[in-house]
Amino acid sequence: MPTAREIMTADATCVRASDPVIEAAVRMADLGIGALPICGEDDRLKGMITDRDIVVKVLAQGKDPHAVHVGELAQGEAVTIGADDDTAELLRTMAQHQVRRVPVIDGHRLVGVVALADVARGLDDPETGLLVEALSTD
Question: What is the pTM of this model?
Answer without folding.
Answer: 0.82
